[in-house]
Amino acid sequence: MKISRILHAGYVFESGGTQIVFDPIFENPFSRNCHAFPDVRFDLAQVRALRPDAVFISHFHDDHCSLESLDLLDRATPIYLYCLFDELFAMIRELGFADVQPLALDVPVVIGEFEVIPRRALEADVDSMFQVRAEGLNVLNVVDSWMDPETLEQLKPYAPWDMVLWPFQTMREVDVIAPSRAERGPVELPEEWPEQLQALAPRYVVPSSCQFNQEPWSWYNRAMFPITYRQFEQAVCEWLPAARVVRLNPSVAVELSAAALTPAEPLPWVLPVGDQDIDFAYDPDIVPPPTSDIAQHFAALTEEQAARVEAFCCEGLIERYQDMELPEDSYFSTPCVWQLSVYEQVGEARHYRYRIHGDTIALMGDEEAPTWTTEIPAAKLYAGLALGESLTSMYMRIKGAPADADIVDDPLIRTLFDNAFAAYQAAQLRRIKARTG
Fold first, then answer.
1. What is the distance between the alpha carbons of residues 84 and 15, in angstroms, rounded to a whole number?
2. What is the pLDDT of residues 170-210, one digit of tens each?
3. Phi, then psi, of 173 in degrees rounded to 5
4. Residues 214, 33: contact at Cβ < 8 Å?
5. What is the CATH T-level fold of the domain 2-272, as seen in this structure?
6. What is the spatial distance between Cα 356 and Cα 360, in angstroms, rounded to a whole number?
7. N or C terminus: fewer CB in 10 A for the chain?
8. Structure pTM?
9. How many Å apart are CA 20 and CA 270, to the nearest integer?
10. Is CATH 3.30.1050 what the domain over 291-436 is classified as, yes or no?
11. Which SUPFAM superfamilies match (predicted)?
12. Domain regions of the chain by residue span
């Protein structure tokens, strides 16, 4: 079995003339500002010439299911997707793929030499993981999900696994959105990992997923990814003395057999750029720059774009908020004042202050100080409205929120992302259709 890394959670598996692809991303950057780490380029002509026997997509997040990447593939390629919502299947079919199939947990799919079995992840309404079998070999692709305890029990009888692709990089999304809550000091690996990996007893462990950084200037690059390749390898070697940790950089391929793991020809259409054996540089004491500085890294909005942002802040946000049902235990269930500060490219902010009580919200003056503030660059707010940009790349900043309040109750987060399924892919589809006529 030949296993090749694309980037992030993307892999090519080959056996006996059968080629299948998992979570293919052929873009850099992808998901708007995820830059491959280490850096790569793609030979798109070679990508267009690929004829995989099937593509498997683990879930709907845009760093796993990108219509821009799928658009490069032959439309006869069967697409197997784990997703509970029909809208995404319809989008992929509208892109021109005729054979788009839903994946069901624990139901095997046989493609040539391969048997692929979707397995339940901890968040089963979002993620799945893959058990991949061929030539008597058993590989677990955990993608970037968390292991469900029941699934672990289900997978134990297959131990020892030949290889596990393990998502080694935890992401500190809340810490960068609300820096005042960030923990200081060294970062420990999740306490459940030793038991889980020891139960699987793999021969080989590949540190997988989160193989990207943000823009080169971004403070996220030293705050978002706390676990290094080095730290992960040292820990796994302590937990599993008989196992070998294998780093697969983009394009790198290996041949897995019952007896050994040997280097193989790299993917010719993934082109490494610069040093490939680099590591994450996490700084637990980093001081985030002000949002006014961050906003200056983005282009100024056009008049039309700025008008859309203004209309949202004055009207659309209020309408969306009132249409939603607030959780009973939300911080905003009691009367409070919330301020949204939108920073333009020159670093100056427009402040919008709202009085909130439960499901009611209204603009107000500056007669009362806010108890919860949210900051965001105008360019990123527009991207969230028009381009389906995800929360982790919007440089949103929350201040003043009580320690016991749930950050995702923030009114901007809720009005942008509640009921916003597949907004990124929908924006991609609009661009593709406009481009191709």
1. 30
2. 888 888 999 888 777 778 899 999 999 999 999 999 999 98
3. -60, -45
4. yes
5. Metallo-beta-lactamase; Chain A (3.60.15)
6. 6
7. C
8. 0.94
9. 16
10. yes
11. Metallo-hydrolase/oxidoreductase
12. 2-272, 291-436
